[in-house]
Amino acid sequence: MGKEKTIYKTKEKMKRSEIGEFLHRLADKITEGRVDLGEGESGLLLQLPESLKFEVEVEDKEKKKGTRHKLELELKWYDDAPEEERTPEQGTP
For the chain, which residues make up each domain, given as ranges? Predict the structure, then answer.
């Protein structure tokens, strides 16, 4: 088993309306099966299969400033996994 490696990450403070616009554009790209993140040499292009695993997670953590809330949306898939190795959640291409 290999170690997980981060190949792209971004973090910035945005207004709720800006995040909504970003997520709408991202949703359109996911529907098309082709997601491009960033620009130039630091950019990343993802080719998505027809079936993916989708997870939604909400966490609360008590901090000095109060309760910090976190909403995570996560997509998972394998590149070219043979059909017999796919789980029911992965589906078939």
Answer: 16-85
